[in-house]
Protein: L-rhamnose mutarotase
Organism: Klenkia brasiliensis
Amino acid sequence: MPRVCFTLQVRPDRLSEYRARHAAVWPEMLCALRGAGWRDYQLFLRPDGLLVGTADVDDLARAQAAVAATEVSARWEAEMGPLFVPGTGDGGSKAPLDLVFDLDAQLAALDPTTPEENP
């Protein structure tokens, strides 16, 4: 299953509210995400509001569309939208970042006799 990474920008003056809402996401929203194919979905937040999301998902666009089609997502987005810098908080803005380095992949490509770690 491919791993995706994306960024969004939370308004710096709304960080506490963003954190509080994600401390207890609505159960029906959690189920909508899982039902749409989101796996191992994590969000990381910097003090300046940069939000980095990672997830295992077969097809990001399809998974986003499946979640967006649910009633609970419409309610969640309506409540969460004001917490984002305009133009960065809607579901369509989760464009994946390009992977430029993968330690495990490069280690796997090494000659099997090459030690993986320095003593």
Notes: The chain is about 35% helix and 20% strand.
